[in-house]
Amino acid sequence: MRQITKAILPVAGFGTRFLPATKAQPKEMLPIVDKPAIQYIVEDAVSAGIKEIIFVTGRGKRAIEDHFDYSFELDKILVEKNKLELVKEVRRISELAKFSYVRQPLPLGDGHALACAAHLIYDEPVLVMFGDTLYDAKEGPASQILKTFAKYGDPVIGLSAVPRNEVSKFGVIDGVAVGERTYEIKRFIEKPSPSEAPSNLVAVGIYVLTPEVLSWLTTMKPGPNGELRLADAFQQMLAHDRPIYGQEFNGTWLDTGDKLSFIKATIQLGLKNEEIGPELKKFIRTLSL
Asked: Is 81 exposed, middle or buried (0-12, 13-18, 19+ CB in 10 A)?
């Protein structure tokens, strides 16, 4: 089976939950400790063998392009000040992978964002990672889901278990266990009520998509709200008896899609940071809770 070497990272959203912080900068560039959130995701993909990162961007996302580009001016200043370790770290960012950028001209859904990049994938399977999903795990989620795809060769949805009262925020699967934390999916239901949800296993925004999925996305008609959704493509495939698998990730899901979750992710990763972790732990212990 062909090795997956490309990943699509849709980053065209407006980040309205973080306003006013995101008025002039992408939410994906908000820092968690000492790196923007999107860099964690790129590094995870690269550690799993991804060679090319395709960003689907929108208006106001230029900072993402600049971050992963080579900065001659910054490099020159750091060299002149003999900050050679910082030079090495900054250069490493632009050398992580080959970066490509596609614009999503209008916010017409996550499926539309992926369809905008489909012409760069050709007939290959592709890793998809949305910008709100980080993991604190010994083995990154990209590696975990690629192993599942290598075993089955069909689309894979990354999963996490959430409390029942939170399932209405996510796409929820109904599946049959076929291995350790692995499921063959029978139904995919978008944002059901807790009483209607067939399980508490939800899609976290990490997928392996086959050319068949991208074909569905490029030929489907938008839904009643004018958006093209990835969930609709999954539902259509399941209705045509096409196999889809789910992989529940090992590790702690750090959902950075809202302010509270973002702060929790910052604290959790901050505590593991060699530079600030010990002092951060001391500070937390001084707080009057």
From this structure: exposed
Whether residue 226 is contained in a domain is answered as yes
Closest CA to 161 of 205, 203, 204, 201: 201
**Dihedrals phi, psi of 174, to nearest 5 degrees:** -120, 115
Q: What angle do CA 212, 213, 219 make, to 5 degrees?
A: 90
Does some domain include residue 1?
A: no
Q: How far apart are CA 219 and CA 213, in angstroms?
A: 10
**Rounded Cα distance, 153 and 146, in Å:** 10
Helix, strand, coil distribution of the chain in percent, nearest 5? 40, 25, 35
Query: Terminal CA-to-CA distance of the chain, rounded, Å?
Result: 53
Q: What is the pTM of this model?
A: 0.91
What are the backbone angles phi and psi of residue 110, rounded to the nearest 5°?
-65, -35
At 14-72, the pLDDT tens digits run 778 888 988 888 899 999 999 999 999 999 999 999 999 999 998 888 899 999 988 77
- Give Cβ neighbours of residue 73 (< 8 Å, ≥ 6 apart): none
Q: Is 127 helix (H, G, I), strand (E, B) or coil?
A: strand
Residues spanned by the domain of 73? 6-286
CB 154 within 8 A of CB 215: no
